[in-house]
Amino acid sequence: AADDAAERGGGGGGLARKLGALARHPLFAAVALAQACYSMQGYTSGAYTGLFFKDAFPAEYDTYSVLSFSASLSIGLVATLAGGAVADAWEARGNATAKLDVAALAALALAAVVCAMVFSPSFGLAATWLCLRYVFSNLADGPAYAAICVVLPPSLRGTAMGVTVVLCALLGALATVVI
Asked: At what angle do helices 28-56 and 123-139 cross, to 10 degrees?
C-alpha cells in the first residue's frame, strides 16, 4: 500500500522503498538500461576517437583537437536542443513513443557514423563523420531522459533520474575500460 502511494505520487517512503518501486516498474528498467547502453557507446567512442585520429591522421591531429572541441561545443549544444524539439514535435503529431523513437534512432545512427568515421580513407571525410558523431551522440539526451519522466509517477522521477545518471556513468566508464 505504501509503495502504491509512493508510485501514485502520494509521497511516502525512503530511498529503499523508491528504489524497490523503480525495480518493479515495468518500463523503468528498459528505459534506464537503453540510456545506459547509449551512454556506453558515447563514452567509448568519445574516449577512443582522439586515439583513432592520432593514429590514423597524425599530421592533422592538432586540427582534429580544435575541430573536436569546437564541434562538441557547438554541434553538441544544438543537437541536444534539437533532439528534444524533434521528439516534442513528433509526439504532438500523434507518435506517443516519439521520445523513445528519437533516442533509438539516434543510437543506431551513432553506431553507423562511428563505423564510417573509423574506416574513412581521408582526414576530411573522417572529420565530417566526427561532426555527425556529435550530432547523434547528443540528439537523444533530452528525449531519453524525458521518457523516464513520461513513464514514471512524479514521486519517483527524481530518484529515477539519479539512478539513471549513476547507471550511465558507471556503465559508460566501465565500457571504456573493457573495450
From this structure: 160
